[in-house]
Each structure stands twice: as structure tokens, then as C-alpha cells.
């Protein structure tokens, strides 16, 4: 089951509730992802700094799409990442929030009992200082699932092994998007060097590949992405895992965080492979989860 956890929505949606017409470009991107073989996508709302419950207005007037289940409009109370998405015939849209963080001493309210954050299927942080990155990796931000780094410029800090290993142990995932390398040739050099650094620091563990596609023509098939990331030194099998199992485990991490309100601990859980995962040669195996 291929998953894309980052289709960004315009920042203007946060300042002014979107109309049905405003959603048309996003809808087209969603349908393109569906045609390319993805079964789950997450729409990503990026917030610079602090937030309030007014951020939720960005999700108003979302249109009905034939054959698409929308998590925040579903009456079934979907719990992401588990059996709800195992059918290869089902296509699901989730919502994600990503918070840019510079000074971790500010109160970002990234706690498991924050009602606003619990409205989102995925919570990510985008640290742009070494201190913020270290805090994200150490678990200081309780209610997060994903750590995202701006790959379009020189990273202002070193991706050290210790904090990265700490984040992996706590069940966090690192995002590596690809559309920047396709859309703008001027930043391709930064993207490639940053991708190599992240893959090296994580040893290709807990990496989630995403599109970050602002337009439908920036999306690519999962197999094209696998070929692209071989340039960054990651194997085809690890690339495939970063498009299937890793984002699925990230969704399970979100489920544990939102529905159990427990701090991170290591547990063993046996995943039952979905029908499409079996078709692709995946087997049941023990993995470490955060609960």
C-alpha cells in the first residue's frame, strides 16, 4: 500500500476559509495520486510558529470526491494506519499539520491532550535551528509523529547521529520529500546533499518519502521515486519501505499517541500485511512501535 503523507495546502487557507473553487487544484492532485497507485494521502497545513484552534477553519468547504474517504468528514471515526486502509480498493485522505519551530522555549502546546492537534491525523515539526532539532528528537515535543527538514537550502545544523538515533528509538519518523528536486533545478544540489546526509544519519531507518507536490504534475509514481532516491544512496528495497511500511507505522504511531495518550515506550507488535502488501511480497514481522 503506497502512502504519500504530504500534499501541501496553500497557506492562505489558514488566514481565510477556502471556497469550493479554492480546493479544485488540491482535488486534482489527490486524484492524480490515486491514479498513480497511492491508497492514502495526507493534506499538509504548514503553520509558522504558534497556532490556535482557528487553524481548523482551513478545512472548511472540502468537496465530496467520488470513491474517496475523507478522515475528518467520515462518520466511522477512522483510526489511521490500521485495518481501515488495508483494502487495495479504498482511497483515503488524511489531514496533517506541520509547525515551523525556531525557539523551542516558546510554548507551542505540542502536548497529547491538545484538542486542536488531536483533530489532525499527523503532526509534524519543521525545526530550523539545532536546538529545535535536538528537542524534537529527544521527545520534548510530546505530540509529534514526523520530523521534517527543509531540503531546499543548506541545513543550518549538522544531522548528528545521537539525536537522530534518539528520535528513531522513540518511534519518530523523518520526512524526505522529492518534488523540490524536480520542480527547481537550482536547488537540486542542496536537495541531493541533504538527502544523502539524512539517509546516512538514519541508516535508512524511519524515513518517509513524500511528494510535497503543490501541483498535480509534480507527483510521480512510486516506482519513479524509488529510482530517484537511488541517487541518494538508498537501496530499492529501502525506498519501497519508505513509501509503504514506514508511513504506515507513522500512522500507527499517531493512533497510539492520539487515542491512548501514552508517552513513548518501545513495544513489540506483529503487523498483519494487507492484501496489496502480500501481493508485493511483504511478510508479517515484528517491528518496534511507540505506544
TrEMBL record:
InterPro entries: Pol/histidinol_Pase-like, RNase_P_p30
One GO MF term: RNA binding
Record keywords: tRNA processing
A GO BP annotation: tRNA processing
Compartment(s) of residence: Nucleus
CC per GO annotation: nucleolar ribonuclease P complex
Keyword tRNA processing: yes
Tagged with keyword tRNA processing: yes
Predominant localisation class: nucleus
A Pfam cross-reference name: RNase_P_p30
UniProt cross-references to PANTHER family, sorted A to Z: RIBONUCLEASE P PROTEIN SUBUNIT P30, RIBONUCLEASE P SUBUNIT P30
Family: Belongs to the eukaryotic/archaeal RNase P protein component 3 family.
Name recorded for this polypeptide: Ribonuclease P protein subunit p30
Amino acid at each position: 500500500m503506497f502512502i504519500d503523507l504530504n500534499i501541501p495546502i496553500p497557506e492562505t487557507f489558514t488566514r481565510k476559509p477556502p471556497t469550493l473553487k479554492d480546493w479544485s487544484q488540491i482535488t486534482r492532485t489527490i486524484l492524480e495520486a490515486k491514479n498513480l497507485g497511492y491508497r492514502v494521502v495526507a493534506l499538509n497545513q504548514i503553520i509558522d510558529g504558534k497556532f490556535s484552534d482557528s487553524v481548523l477553519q482551513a478545512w472548511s468547504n472540502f468537496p465530496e470526491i467520488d470513491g474517496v474517504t475523507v478522515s475528518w468528514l467520515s462518520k466511522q471515526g477512522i483510526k489511521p494506519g490500521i485495518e481501515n486502509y488495508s483494502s487495495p480498493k479504498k482511497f483515503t485522505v488524511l489531514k496533517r499539520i506541520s509547525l515551523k519551530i525556531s525557539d523551542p522555549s516558546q510554548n507551542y502546546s505540542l502536548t497529547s491532550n491538545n484538542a486542536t492537534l488531536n483533530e489532525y491525523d499527523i503532526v509534524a515539526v519543521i525545526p530550523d535551528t539545532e536546538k529545535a532539532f535536538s528537542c524534537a528528537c529527544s521527545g520534548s515535543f510530546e505530540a509529534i509523529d514526523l520530523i521534517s527538514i527543509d531540503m531546499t537550502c543548506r541545513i543550518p545544523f549538522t544531522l548528528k547521529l545521537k539525536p537522530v538515533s534518539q528520535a528513531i528509538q522513540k518511534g519518530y519518523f523523518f520526512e524526505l520529500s522529492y518534488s523540490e528536486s524536480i520542480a527547481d533545478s537550482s536547488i537540486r544540489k542542496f536537495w541531493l546533499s541533504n538527502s544523502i546526509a539524512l539517509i546516512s544519519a538514519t541508516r535508512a531507518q524511519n524515513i518517509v518519502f513524500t511528494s510535497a507536490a503543490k501541483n498535480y504534475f509534480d507527483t510521480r509514481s512510486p516506482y519513479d521515486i524509488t529510482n530517484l532516491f537511488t541517487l541518494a544512496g538508498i537501496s530499492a528495497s529501502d525506498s519501497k519501505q519508505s513509501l509503504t511500511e514506514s508511513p504506515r507505522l507513522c500512522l500507527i504511531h499517531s493512533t497510539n499517541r492520539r487515542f491512548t495518550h501514552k508517552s513513548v515506550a518501545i513495544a513489540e507488535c506483529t503487523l498483519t500485511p494487507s492484501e496489496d502488501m502480500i501481493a508485493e511480497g511483504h511478510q508479517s514481522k515484528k517491528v518496534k512501535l511507540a505506544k
